[in-house]
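Researcher: Quick test of sequence recovery. Tokens follow.
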């Protein structure tokens, strides 16, 4: 269990919080940068233990949306709820505690080039847990086994393939055993074999660890493998939501264009 997970889970829910089964809820979120209105009233929710995929064309605001879930951005209007907490209002220790229960897989993996694979992961444990060296080593070895890269523990990031970097990034994202994982284009630039490998790991996290996930992606293969529900972002709002098959059949102009119909 992550360091802050018990504290957050046991906190009294704030007034107007979503039902306990809803881990994420955005309510009418607006965000503009100057005159560029990126989000124009985004509303959607994600049930605990489910994987939501956010899709949309380039520049539609997918990354802007996901950054609100960890308060990397503040909404101009609207509410952002995660684990019963109003994220956009959190400050200081309360915000830090929430963030420690959320794993984030960045688009490029975001590994430290000067550190080995083991050191990249140990850095997180050393900084955010009270585990001793032996306990940290055991958890790292178990996690590297889980992503099938135990033999890469002493490798530098420059020695890894693109797919391996993604899997190491995923190992680092889950090392604190979060309740929620956020993925920013988890399979961009990967070959189809690596796309399947990374996508299946994301699915295993839901099936084996009941981790709730939100992934933003352009990759239809990834979405097909991981998504319980797809939310399509267009013109600053969620234009359609449902299964990938349902969205592929939609007659919405933006979806027809996205799916090449």
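Model:
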């Amino acid at each position: 269990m992550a360091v802050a997970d018990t504290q957050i889970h046991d906190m009294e829910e704030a007034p107007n919080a979503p039902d306990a089964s809803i881990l994420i809820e955005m309510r009418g979120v607006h965000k503009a940068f100057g005159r560029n209105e990126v989000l124009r009233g985004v509303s959607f929710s994600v049930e605990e233990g489910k994987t939501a995929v956010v899709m949309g064309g380039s520049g539609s605001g997918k990354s802007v949306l996901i950054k609100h879930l960890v308060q990397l951005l503040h909404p101009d209007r609207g509410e952002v709820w995660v684990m019963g907490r109003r994220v956009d209002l959190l400050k200081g220790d309360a915000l830090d505690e929430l963030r420690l229960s959320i794993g984030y897989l960045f688009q490029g993996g975001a590994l430290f080039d000067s550190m080995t694979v083991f050191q990249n992961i140990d850095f997180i444990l050393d900084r955010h847990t009270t585990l001793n060296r032996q306990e940290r080593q055991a958890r790292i070895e178990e996690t590297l086994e889980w992503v099938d890269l135990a033999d890469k523990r002493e490798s530098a990031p420059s020695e890894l393939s693109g797919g391996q970097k993604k899997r190491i990034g995923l190992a680092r994202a889950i090392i604190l055993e979060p309740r929620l994982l956020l993925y920013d284009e988890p399979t961009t630039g990967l070959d189809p074999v690596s796309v399947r490998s990374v996508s299946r790991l994301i699915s295993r996290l839901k099936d084996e660890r009941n981790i709730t996930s939100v992934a933003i992606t352009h990759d239809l293969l990834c979405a097909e493998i991981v998504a319980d529900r797809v939310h399509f972002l267009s013109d600053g709002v969620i234009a359609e939501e449902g299964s990938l098959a349902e969205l592929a059949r939609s007659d919405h102009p933006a979806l027809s264009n996205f799916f090449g119909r």
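Residues 1-12 have pLDDT under 50 and may be disordered.
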